[in-house]
Amino acid sequence: SRWDGARGAARGGGRGQGQGGGRQQQQEQAERFSGLHNHKLKELMLSCGGAAAFHHAGLSAEDRACVEALFQQGVVRVLCSTSTLAQGINSPAFLAIVLGTTFWRGAGTGYEDLPVSAVLQMIGRAGRPGYDDRGVAVIMTSKDRELTYTSMAEGQEVVESQLPARFHEALNAEVCSHVISNLLDAMRWLRSTFLWVRAHRN
Predict the structure, then answer these.
(1) What pLDDT does 11 receive?
(2) Which of 52, 74, 92, 108 could form a disulfide with 131 if both were Cys (CB 3.0 to 4.6 A apart)?
(3) Dist. CA 124–CA 162, nearest whole Å
(4) 92, 132 in Cβ contact below 8 A?
(5) Which candidate, 8, 15, 6, places its Cα nearest to that of 74?
(6) Which residues neighbour 102 within 8 Å (Cβ) at sequence distance 6 or greater?
(7) Which DSSP string do the residues of the chain spell out, in sequence order?
């Protein structure tokens, strides 16, 4: 299966693998990564023996799972990713680089700052307990935002809930998912949010 292929790549492409191997090594690598759907991803991984890859929401679920597995197993050493990799995926790394702290919201809005919680998730990949005893996080931002992220990294900035700006969207989503069907459900859901915690502490 393709998952077995990912495990095979992890065994064959680990840290101890040498630089040689010639044509036979190229054929083995071609077989290991043959199950990847994305041609650019496959071409990149074949060119470097699987040591580098990329990850974004446009990849198929199987391709994303394969890249995540190879990264966690230490085969993929350099992984370029969108914010998708920071959301609920156990992907520890020694070095995490955030290349820019804004994102495009569309022609009507333009660029907006990434939520502080998202940046914290990204740099939280570095130096995960149980994997490394230390880690390095680099945040590349504009000069006018430097103090903001310095304070954040040093734990001096209070993290606030971002729910108020999207409250109606979140509430509608819970109603459509049948989590909320009456006022009591709505109050129970609201009490479970970070917004409720911050509202009481403020």
Answers:
(1) 40
(2) 92
(3) 19
(4) yes
(5) 15
(6) 111, 112, 113, 114
(7) -HHHHHHHHHHHSSTT--S--HHHHHHHHHHHTTT-S-HHHHHHHHHTTTSEEEE-TTS-HHHHHHHHHHHHTTS--EEEE-GGGGSS----BSEEEEE-SEEE--TTT-EEEPPHHHHHHHHTTBT-TTT-S--EEEEE--GGGHHHHHHHHTT-SPP---GGGGHHHHHHHHHHTTS--SHHHHHHHHHTSHHHHHHHH-
Q: What's the pLDDT tens digit per position in 4-28?
A: 434 333 444 444 445 455 677 666 6
Q: What is the reported pLDDT for 2?
A: 38
Residue 142 is encoded by which pair of tokens? 């504009």
Give the distance, in angstroms, between the CA of residue 76 and the centroid of all CA atoms in the same chain: 15
Distance between CA atoms of residues 144 and 102, nearest Å: 13
pTM: 0.61
Cα gap 149→157, rounded to integer Å: 9
- Which residue in the block uniquely carries the two structure tokens 């994305």? 38
Between helix 22-32 and helix 2-12 the angle, nearest 10°, is: 140
Q: Please, what is the average pLDDT of the chain?
A: 82
